[in-house]
Design brief:
The complex is a heterodimer of chains A (about 250) and B (about 250). With about 250 residues, chain A is an alpha+beta fold. Chain A folds into 2 domains: about 50 residues, no CATH class; about 180 residues, Oxidoreductase, molybdopterin-binding domain (Sulfite Oxidase, Chain A, domain 2). Chain A has 6 helices and 11 strands. Chain A has a 5-stranded mixed β-sheet with strand order 3-2-11-6-7. In chain A, strands 4, 5, 8, 9 and 10 form a 5-stranded antiparallel β-sheet that branches. With about 250 residues, chain B is mainly α. In chain B, about 60% of the residues lie in helices and about 5% in strands. In chain B, strands 1-2 form a two-stranded antiparallel sheet. Classes of the chains: A alpha+beta (about 250), B mainly alpha (about 250). At the A-B interface, helix 2, strand 1 and strand 5 of A face helix 2, strand 4, helix 3, helix 7 and helix 9 of B. Strand 1 of chain A pairs parallel with strand 4 of chain B, so a sheet runs across the interface.
């Protein structure tokens, strides 16, 4: 029988990697996005944990009116033109009525699930910010946004203390979600105004999310429904993870 | 360590240390992965700019013909945001772009972690055992103009001395290695971090340092080009100075 070493180099490396992975996973395993054993998603979680460990998350840079730039509208530029979609049909009717009938539903882990009309949103205190939008494709643009801080909307529905994530559903059948740190960030707003005018349809009328601490794709347009959860939800087939994308875009 | 070995006599028996060899190939694999995934990410928007802003509706510093997204004309007519028709505009994009950023960016970051963690180990070990001081950092007398000039002339005429199987480097080689380790690699890291909105929210000085998000992206690209150039020259020199011997020296350490 050949003598076996107690600690081989290979075993040391494997143990080391497993321990390092374990640190990342157990740090807050219950609230980290699922990886489904995918190496890329494990890397994403490592990056997310590292960014959340940065000191003093602060406000993003704000610019002056002179910095406002041209701004492409990409992907959906009018959900009302999506054929054979219930959401698209609903959006077309709302658009026809100048969004007077639009209601943003806030539900899930809140004390009083409720809806907000556009007027109700505008009656809450607003925030105006000139910020840089960074598209995950690599381009950037600066615009002025006015909207209701998401924090006020969540507090308006009585967010429960156990809540950890906020999910967003849109009229172009899109899905995004953010953690509570970004949801309660002072610059995270539901914008109904862009560059001093009503939010144009190609940019997400009547209201879109602005998450300035993440890439542009998190700032979902054409808001329809907000759901507060205690647990991470990947969004199913609509979610970024099942479509092969990182969930956290901070980045 | 005897001074004659530290100074790198070609006849010396000193070989590449195992931590140097492991670092070398870890970095090689990470760099190839970073270059490949970075190129795929760039293909989604093959335009470079200066300052904070740049997009399909603003002029570019440089447009790279590296995907079907190059100079596509899929835009609806632009509409101005303000009464000033020459001011900022918006336009709907009607073109379905090439975009593989989902896996490409996650792979890019995974490779960056695989570079960062052993890279930090390499730097600390190199400082701790005096590797940089002894072998990499050019000495004052080596930087004498006539010595540098002689090394330049030798390289231009492709008079490359045969491989020595260990860390015995010429003055140009030392300068280039120092630039890669202490300038290019850190520049890649911090220009990359400057592109992350959550990072600049925490460390706003990064944006000031580069003069904007797009400047950081452009510097990230040109530093990559410089590193790519280094890799080509490095591999060329390895071939010229004895490929088999160099590979043996950097793998089994003989």
């Amino acid at each position: 029988m050949k003598p076996t070493k107690l600690i081989t180099r290979r075993r040391a490396i494997i143990t080391g990697l497993a321990a390092a992975g374990g640190l990342v996973v157990t740090r807050d395993w219950k609230h980290l996005p699922p990886t489904y054993g995918n190496l890329l998603r494990i890397g994403d979680n490592l990056t997310y944990a590292a960014i959340r460990a940065l000191p003093k998350p602060s406000l993003v840079k704000e610019y002056s009116r002179a910095d406002i730039s041209s701004f492409p509208a990409i992907n959906t530029t009018d959900p009302g033109t999506i054929a054979g979609s219930t959401l698209g049909d609903a959006y077309r009717r709302l658009r026809g009525g100048a969004f007077a009938e639009w209601r943003l539903s806030v539900e899930g882990r809140v004390a009083t699930p409720r809806t907000f009309s556009l007027d109700e949103l505008k009656h809450l205190s607003s925030r105006t910010q000139i910020t840089r939008h960074v598209c995950e494709e690599g381009w950037s643009a600066i615009a002025e946004w006015t909207g209701t801080p998401l924090r006020l909307v969540l507090e308006g529905a009585g967010i429960l203390p156990t809540a950890r994530f906020v999910l967003f559903y849109s009229y172009d059948d899109w899905f995004e979600s953010i953690d509570m740190l970004d949801a309660l960030h002072p610059q995270t707003i539901l914008a109904y105004n862009m560059n001093g005018r009503d939010l144009p349809i190609p940019h997400g009328a009547p209201a879109r999310l602005r998450v300035e601490t993440q890439l542009g794709q998190k700032s979902i347009k054409y808001l329809q429904r907000i759901v507060v959860t205690d647990e991470f939800y990947d969004g199913g087939e609509k979610g970024s993870i099942q479509n092969g994308w990182a969930w956290y875009m901070g980045i | 360590m005897p001074e004659s070995l530290a100074l790198g006599q070609p006849s010396g028996i000193q070989h590449h240390a195992s931590w140097v060899r492991i670092s070398h190939w870890t970095v090689t694999i990470s760099l190839i992965t970073l270059a490949f995934s970075g190129f795929v990410i760039l293909m989604a928007h093959p335009r470079l700019y200066w300052g904070e802003v740049g997009n399909g509706l603003t002029p570019a510093l440089l447009e790279l013909p590296i995907s079907r997204n190059h100079q596509h004309s899929g835009w609806d007519p632009p509409r101005p945001f303000f009464s000033d028709a020459a001011g900022p505009v918006t336009a709907n994009r009607t073109y379905r772009i090439f975009n593989q950023n989902g896996w490409a960016r996650s792979l890019h970051f995974l490779a960056a972690w695989c570079l960062l963690l052993p890279g930090a180990g390499y730097l600390l070990t190199g400082i701790f055992v005096g590797h940089f001081r002894t072998h990499i950092w050019p000495k004052r007398k080596e930087l004498a103009p006539q010595r540098v000039w002689r090394d330049v002339v030798d390289h231009v005429r492709l008079r490359i001395p045969p491989a020595s199987s260990g860390p015995h480097y010429g003055v140009l080689q030392k300068c280039v290695y120092s630039l890669v380790v202490f300038v290019a690699a850190p520049l890649m890291l911090i220009s990359g971090l400057t592109m992350a909105p959550a990072v600049t929210a925490s460390i706003p000085s990064l944006l000031h340092l580069f003069g904007g998000y797009q400047s950081a992206r452009t510097i990230h690209f040109f530093t990559f080009v410089a590193l790519l150039l280094f890799v080509f020259v490095h591999v060329g020199m390895v071939i010229k100075s004895g490929f088999r011997r160099q590979i043996r020296a950097m793998t089994v350490g003989e």
